[in-house]
Specification:
The protein is of the alpha+beta class. It is 46% helix and 19% strand. It has three domains: 51 residues, no CATH class; 142 residues, no CATH class; 108 residues, VSR Endonuclease (Endonuclease, Chain A, 3-Layer(aba) Sandwich), CATH 3.40.960.10. InterPro entries: Restrct_endonuc-II-like (IPR011335).
């Protein structure tokens, strides 16, 4: 029955379904049979399309459905914020929640928006709001601050790193946090924004750096360039005085792809060239990040061994 709907359109309002020739009974039947998913009142998506969406794409669609549901209603200055804003800005999130986050000048009940909507109360300045995909969304700066105040450290740091890579400065972010006064989460936000690094190139690299900070190891330098006979290579992290490099490989878990034989050959060739220059290279994967005791012991042992060798 949903075959008659345009495959290029994902989100359908109830009136649009009727305009396509579906009757009220047809819509009710399609929802009951599982062919059509009701995202919220008067907003639907064909199940075949929904099942093919990524988590992030679903979050974007949920925000769009929420906006659709507010058409014609008396809403006061709602702005999509927090993780929802991060998704709409195109940021990569790690294990995002399923709720739609909305900020308004006055707090309203969840019942007025839906059970999956998290309402936040704040007065936003004009430059705190931008328009993305036709939706009012908090700016990158405000999004970084909101996420830093409310998310666990690792998740917040992933957002902050990407915001700074896109131009948010640490000084501006920390100043904006100070202006919030004694608001909840400002201490946590300051810690996240102080630790943020615009050089991180993936959530996995951010989580790796978070582990290094938590372990209390000598501070590693991000994105260190090393000249070799094969050219200049860049290490994810390095302790240049010890000639120790740390590489994070997150392809399988994060991107869902395996390295090809050609890629593996080039990586081995690259590593041999680095070793020829006196470097010790450590490689870690996603699974290593969640065996923290083992990872810390491995890193400490390597740094200690190399330091002892250089001192001999």
């Amino acid at each position: 029955m949903t075959a008659r709907l345009s495959p290029t359109k994902t989100l359908w309002r109830y009136r649009e379904l009727l305009d396509e020739g579906l009757s009220r009974q047809h819509v009710h039947h399609l929802v009951g049979s599982g062919e059509l998913r009701r995202l919220r009142k008067n907003c639907y998506v064909p199940e075949a399309q929904w099942s093919g969406l990524s988590t992030v794409e679903r979050l974007v669609l949920q925000a769009q459905a929420h906006q659709h549901s507010l058409v014609g209603r008396d809403t006061v200055g709602h702005v999509y914020s927090h993780e929802t804003a991060a998704v709409l800005h195109g940021l990569d999130l790690w294990r995002p929640g399923n709720d739609v986050h909305v900020t308004q000048p006055t707090r309203t009940s969840n019942a007025s928006h839906g059970a999956d909507v998290r309402n936040h109360s704040a007065h936003l300045a004009a430059d705190d709001v931008v328009l993305l995909q036709g939706l009012p969304v908090t700016s990158l700066l405000r999004t970084a601050i909101d996420c830093a105040r409310t998310l666990p450290f690792d998740k917040a740091l992933i957002v902050a790193d990407q915001c700074m890579a896109r131009g948010v400065t640490r000084g501006a972010a920390l100043t904006a946090v100070d202006l919030l006064g004694p608001a909840a989460g400002v201490g946590r936000a300051s810690a996240v924004l102080t630790a943020a690094d615009p050089l991180a190139e993936s959530p996995g690299e951010t989580l790796t750096r978070s582990r290094l900070l938590r372990f209390g190891l000598p501070r590693a330098v991000s994105q260190v360039e090393v000249s070799t006979r094969l050219g200049c290579y860049r290490l994810d992290f390095a302790w240049p005085d010890l000639l120790v490099g740390l590489e994070f490989d997150g392809r399988v878990k994060y991107l869902g792809t395996e390295a090809t034989d050609e890629v593996l050959y080039e990586e081995r060739r690259r590593e041999r060239a680095l070793v020829e220059e006196g470097w010790t290279i450590l490689r870690i994967e996603w699974s290593d990040l969640f065996r923290e005791a083992e990872l810390e012991a491995r890193l400490r042992a390597t740094l200690r061994r190399v330091a002892s060798r250089l001192a001999a």
